[in-house]
């Protein structure tokens, strides 16, 4: 008997939903117990990766947890650990535990399991959306005619990072709505993106560099705010820990940069396209002599959703990534995600395992 990628036969994709919504759909398995879900469709396994795309697991865990809550609760933080590489050839079971249900906050933990082993775990906190409050609830005004609710809002602590500015001093602007300039090599999957920009590319200090890219889900998300938030969670893992390869100018392909000219022309063109797309420069041969990545694996991932009601993942969002620290075989990357109007939607942090390929030692002596 061959392994199945899903427990149940996947239904046809809903043409009224965005591609990302179909990809992140989860199915409840009440027959196995309360609050157990499974992936409806096969998750994506990036070429060359050890396992399935981590953003898909994060987002499906979030989607499963949201199914155990009323619609007026929206995620505000998500703390995740990647434990084992997930297989795209096996079904995933999402076990949701209802840790706490309060009047304003609710907490869920979710374990993603394959063959009885936990491959991923997350704790997710939700906050009740105040806009769902009954409009008939009593509210009084002060002597200036300002409602108590508005007065309370004005007294709240509030600030946010501003969207980065370009060389002209103006806030960065997104690509046009009809943007379609992605190379075919990267124009796949449920998200669309612009070429990546590497700020301070020539700096000798990796901590001074930043990557920036505009992204948006393809099509229109129709599943409400929970679907928009799951989509943001999905894309938050894209290029994340890999930022270190760009900040440190590390070679990441499975052959030496010195051998680029010996490759078949079509493969050479693909490498050059990816090199440019990721903001590394026009010519991959500039990487000759640079260190090579031996292993890079995400360890943990945190998302703080600052403005959950304002997330529109099917509209342009700007991602900005930088790294405050790397050492001891690990690295930390921080990410800010802005709406195109400048709203800071989310802040994300990821730590990953980062090991360089060590040069082969010469004149090894036999241990015999």
UniProtKB/TrEMBL annotation:
Q: Where is the composition biased (Polar residues)?
A: 194-205
**Boundaries of every Acyl-CoA thioesterase-like N-terminal HotDog domain copy:** 42-127
Which GO MF term does the entry hold, naming one? fatty acyl-CoA hydrolase activity
Q: Which domain of life is it from?
A: Eukaryota
Query: Could you tell me which residues belong to the region Disordered?
Result: 130-212
Cellular component annotations (GO), alphabetically ordered = peroxisomal matrix
Q: Biased composition, Basic and acidic residues: where in the chain? A: 145-170
UniProt domain Acyl-CoA thioesterase-like C-terminal: residue ranges: 176-354
Q: Which residues form the signal peptide?
A: none
Annotated CDD domains: Thioesterase_II_repeat1, Thioesterase_II_repeat2
Which Gene3D superfamilies is this protein grouped with? Hotdog Thioesterase
What Pfam families does the database record attribute to this sequence?
4HBT_3, 4HBT_3C
Biological process terms in GO annotation: acyl-CoA metabolic process; fatty acid catabolic process
Q: What is this protein called?
A: Thioesterase-like superfamily-domain-containing protein
Per the UniProt record, the source organism is: Dichotomopilus funicola
